[in-house]
């Protein structure tokens, strides 16, 4: 198979404009004759469904949650990037493009990323027009903050709930279309397979999660916007229901899966507390604007802290190792996520971790310096040029509360510790997956008519995503890319007419789904679904996690293959098919996670270099930084499904061409 | 807006509840000012006030608004309660409402019903007597003249008419040879000419004192009255500031409104309650 | 951190096979629950135990487990989202309970939120209210005016955000003795009423959303304030007052 990225010709900055000018259109009177299915209602899905509905297509939107508003985009905290240069610090479309490519460790497509940067400004305009209440300054203008991997302030935010506000904006646009009858919404429905007719995507098989009914839905195009696959690790910052099933099912039907090994481990999450833990909670990256990360300089101090004999506040300033500031003076605490995460792991592996859990994995995020600085500033601003220490501390805490109040409260509720008084404990956790279904420039997968948007595709973040770029990509795909590219595809479908759902292809796909369900329900094993999911998660975290090496990856591949066998032999699913059955939902998802996990290990094994979130211990420089191999690995690794045995999957390479950017080693020092 | 929404929409029901409720608060204040004359004024002053309240056309208009408010407040309350009961067909096995709301706010319907019962009895005891009781006494004073006690009706024009010279009605007066007889409860008519010569005051003061000082039922009446005022107090504790919220007033003045509402809800019923206690125990 | 310990608890949980069947409270015993666990992790533990006993696990709604998606929805010991304030059920931790406690767990109770199974309810009424007017009618072309073309006073933007922070979990309805949805609707109406973008459609928005709210069978607000106390996002009663104002304004137009 030859991968055609369909990147338009011409200078980089004009590619998208030129491309749009030449895409085919569907006339307004023809649009109502065309059906489109959108699976997933996060930023990408909701915005795509709303836009396509508004254009006049018949849209059917699906989400497994009880409402489209609950998609996991809602949990994004920090912000959304846009090259508006409102802060007059030299930002531009080019810089956003450059930062994103560099942040992704030169493993993303130039053309896609440039398009993303181009439309970033429209996103903010659109959202403001929709009534998204971004943070503002006293003059009434929009406020911005900095995020990791950049030296400008281009991140728009709404307290620590930016994802929520953006999603609710998209949800409101979607709701408007549902109310107008342009979009038919299917809540609590899960896509379990795709239907292909003559090679084209023609519909999906979905399960009504309340009644268990298996439904056939036809359409002229199918858009998959179902998010990332971080839950393959069991513990992650993803929602419990986040899953790879839609993406994996299209993979099994012919869509290539690209760069599965690119996983972002977010540096600032609350550490693991115990074996019953179900999920990890993120503390927004924006906290790194104000917090300083450290561990004790002396191992004995770290031990004493873990034993509960010392408190962090008792460690003297000179005995603290602000290791990010030490190693990366230029970016300090605001290095990209992968860099910050690995640095934390390095310290903890060396024995300086401060959390009293099984693995001692935890470092401090300390706000005391910021409390002093901001307190002093606030006192001066109030005309008090001689503030007392207490006044400074009080004002500083007040400043923090205004800026991060909800995050601090969340932290306190979970850990029972007051972060205004004692530093937060944090540790990296699986957060985002840069890999995903391979798509061309039009966001179309290798199945014609099947488009993939948002985190579910692989396209824009290379090997590492910068903070506040996921929201940008989701909305860019949904609002500003898919409406054009999907229409281009559909221009040839105006004569197709309604697609019947009783064709053999539909019946066959339905039978596939029903068989799988029956098999699991009759399996009569002895172990719960979670048992296997947790086992998979441990293998993935320990061997396909932050630091990877050949031996462990090979072990992982064998162990996962074994786990898969055990799973199919011994999993127990209570209940029946025709009812609300959460265990059945889970087993179908975990089955796909297991296969994906194996492919991730294979992908990590073949990529004999370190880049972004993919760190191969064999490939690092003297200072422990990633060592890319641009000569041999400057490609997108896209895998083709070859049957039930995942180890037989075939790797296809899409060479990455850098025309605009001079490729270089990433340096944040 | 569709006209039907004026009654149907849940928010409009709240407006009506708030408007009628606030009007009734005004009524309470006025009523209290009048009643306090039972303590601070003499019988004449009180009866003059009572006459004013039953005869002045503006007051009459207000009184109709009051009747309407009470009725509408009650009917609207029933509708609200019906809607609210329907909204939760299956209740909770365990509920801990005191964790998040006040007793009064949760029991407005019960408190309101009790108040309605009180209002009805209260009106039967006083208002109905004042308006319809044929045997309602007319205000008279006792003066000592020449060592003899004499009972005299006091007329609205400030004259005195000896009680014994007035017949209960025209027949009595004719029989007993009295010059004057009483008509319409408090009007003095000339027996021969059958024309009105002057007007007296219905003695509501006497009725009231008698009611609360009744040797058998006075104490129980006083206690019930005080209890009713406690119920009213709880109703007002929530109702007063709630009305402002319903009408959309929730701003920088809200704390002041809440404080005023609390004071109003305590002071007004307290002063109301003091009156029968004073009559029963002190007078 | 107060050191985590293990406690044993008794659970009384509403079990109901499906929307049509009659449910009842069932009793379960669960041992060795870490006080560092979240409430939902405790339920995971119970379900693991039930599955191992070949019994049907308890169905409950949950997703993000960090207090933002609004999916979790339990009435715990007589309170929406349990005994702590300012949080959702998924943020409730077992350290709020003691060894030997009996914990009641029930679904949201509202005519407009019918039970689907066990502790899972159908909250699509909220979606329909949103569809009736919870939006600004602007096409998604991106060709709107520049985001900074209309300055918005920080105070208004902040207030709009506070209203928009609603997660649509339905705790307000569940906790309200009247099953009223006015905090939810008030918050949405307020968000748009406070912003210039929302002013154009303000009249129709409030009328349509309130009409839909009434049609869904929610109860009426009697200003008990319980919703504000139990709201995990601290949405203020001010928003209901603002909706009342907006409705009045719209009605008089």
From TrEMBL, chain A:
GO terms for biological process: anaerobic respiration. GO terms for cellular component: plasma membrane. It is found in: Cell membrane. Its cofactor is FAD. It catalyses: a quinone + succinate = fumarate + a quinol. Residues 35-471 form the FAD-dependent oxidoreductase 2 FAD-binding domain. The keyword Transport applies. SUPFAM superfamilies: FAD/NAD(P)-binding domain (SSF51905), Succinate dehydrogenase/fumarate reductase flavoprotein C-terminal domain (SSF46977), Succinate dehydrogenase/fumarate reductase flavoprotein, catalytic domain (SSF56425). Keywords: Cell membrane, Electron transport, FAD, Flavoprotein, Membrane, Oxidoreductase, Transport. InterPro entries: FAD-dep_OxRdtase_2_FAD-bd (IPR003953), FAD/NAD-bd_sf (IPR036188), Fum_R/Succ_DH_flav-like_C_sf (IPR037099), Fum_Rdtase/Succ_DH_flav-like_C (IPR015939), SdhA/FrdA/AprA (IPR030664), Succ_DH/Fum_Rdt_flav_su (IPR011280), Succ_DH/fumarate_Rdtase_cat_sf (IPR027477). It is an enzyme of class 1 (oxidoreductase). It is a peripheral membrane protein. Its EC number is 1.3.5.1. Residues 533-668 form the Fumarate reductase/succinate dehydrogenase flavoprotein-like C-terminal domain. GO terms for molecular function: electron transfer activity; flavin adenine dinucleotide binding; succinate dehydrogenase (quinone) activity. Its main location: membrane. Pfam families: FAD_binding_2, Succ_DH_flav_C. The active site is at 337 (proton acceptor). Belongs to the FAD-dependent oxidoreductase 2 family. FRD/SDH subfamily. PANTHER family: SUCCINATE DEHYDROGENASE 2 FLAVOPROTEIN SUBUNIT, SUCCINATE DEHYDROGENASE FLAVOPROTEIN SUBUNIT. This is succinate dehydrogenase.
Automatic annotation (TrEMBL), chain B:
The chain crosses the membrane at residues 65-85, 106-128, 219-240, 260-281. Keywords: Membrane, Transmembrane, Transmembrane helix. This is Succinate dehydrogenase cytochrome B subunit. The keyword Transmembrane applies. NCBIfam families: sdhC_b558_fam. It comes from Flavobacterium saliperosum S13.
From TrEMBL, chain C:
It comes from Flavobacterium saliperosum. Residues 157-187 form the 4Fe-4S ferredoxin-type domain. Belongs to the succinate dehydrogenase/fumarate reductase iron-sulfur protein family. It comes from the Bacteria. Its cofactor is [2Fe-2S] cluster; [3Fe-4S] cluster. One of its GO terms (biological process) is aerobic respiration. Pfam families: Fer2_3, Fer4_8. InterPro entries: 2Fe-2S_ferredoxin-like_sf, 2Fe2S_fd_BS, 4Fe4S_Fe-S-bd, Beta-grasp_dom_sf, Helical_ferredxn, SDH/FRD_Iron-Sulfur, Succ_DH/fum_Rdtase_N. GO terms for molecular function: 2 iron, 2 sulfur cluster binding; electron transfer activity. This is Succinate dehydrogenase / fumarate reductase iron-sulfur subunit.
